[in-house]
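ugh ok fine here u go
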Amino acid sequence: MKLAIKLAYRNLIGAGLRTWLNVIVLSFSFVVIIWLKGVMTGWDHQAKTDMTNWEIGGGQYWHEAYDPYDPFTLSESHAPVPGEFLAAVAAGEMEPVLITQANIYPEGRMMQVMLRGINPDQSIFQLPTRLLDSATDATPAIIGAMMAKTSHLSAGDYVTLRWRDANGTFDATDILICGIFNASVPAIDAGQVYIALDKLQEMLLLPGEATIVTFRSSDLPRQEVAGWVLKTSEELTRQVDEMIKTKSAGQSILYGILLLLAMLAIFDTQVLSIFRRQKEIGTYIALGYTRQQVVGLFTVEGSMHAILAAVVAAAYGLPFLAWQAKAGWTMPVDTSEFGMAIAQTLYPVYSLGLVITTIVIVTITTTIVSYLPSRKIAKMNPTDALRGKLQ
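structure:
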C-alpha cells in the first residue's frame, strides 16, 4: 500500500497541469460546500439567539385561548397572572405581556396594530422598554424600525391610538413615540406598538392580567398551569429549524452539481490515463503486480486528487472562511420584509464535524469515481499491452 501511494503521488505530479486543474476544481467544491453550510448553520444560531433575546426568552406560557395567527382570539386571550408566577415576576425572572388589537391614525390614515403592554423595568428582552418611563403628557410608546417605516412615524411624533376595553367600549388617547429600535425578528416589530403594562391594563380594565408570560431560563423544568399552555424554546423556534432544513435541501442540489463537475473531470482523466498508459500497466503486471493491485494503484491515484484538493483548499480557503466568519456575508437585499428572523449580515459558523464530514464525503466519492474506469484494467491482456496494442 505504501508503494502504491508513492507511485500514485509521482504519477500525479508527473501529469502536471492536468492534475492541478482537477485539484483546483475539487478544492473549489470543498470551500463552497463548507462556506454555504457554515452560512446556514450561522443563520440557524443567529436566528435562535435573536428570537431568544427579543421575543421568546427561555420559553413562554400562553393563555389557552391565545392564537398569534388569529387576532379575533385576543379579546378572550387574557387572564390574571397565576399565583405560581408572582414571585418569579417580582424577581424579574418572568415577564407578563398583555396583547390587544388597536388602531393608530398616522397622517390621517387608519392603521391596525397589535398593542403590547410590557414592564418598563424588564430585563429579559433587549427591547428599550426603559423609554416607556418617559415623563410626558401623552402615553409613551416604542416601535420597531420596520413599523416606523410602514407608518412614517419618527421618534418624538404624536399619534392617536384607539382601542376597545374589556366591556367593549371604544376609547382613544394620544401616544408619543419615545424610541425606535432595530431588531431582526419581524414578529416583534411589524405592526407592533409597545406601552407600559400597567398603563395598558388600566386602559383595558384588566388589572393584573396578561396574555403571555415569558420566563428567562430554559434550563429549569416548568410545571403545567391550568388555563395556560407551556411553550418551550424548541417549540417556538421550530419554524426556523424547518426553514433551515428546507434551505439545506435546496442547497444539496448545488452541492451535487459542484461534485458532479469535479467527478466528471476526474473520471475523464482516469479513462484517458488508462488509455494512454497501457504499456505501463502491462509492465506492472509483468513485474509481478496482480491485476487487482494495478486497479488499486490507479484507484489510489484518482482518490489522491481529493487529498491534494484538501491541501490546496486549506491554503486559500482557511483565510477566506476565517474572514467570512469575522466580517459576515451581507445580504444583497433588504431582509426586514422577509417575514422571518434573519439578520442583514449573516456570520458563518464552522464546526470540526462539518469540515471532516465534507472531506470524507468528497474523498469517498472521488475514490468510487476513480475505481469505476480502473476496473477495465482487470480485463486487459498484459502481452498486448506491452506490444502497444490498443485495447
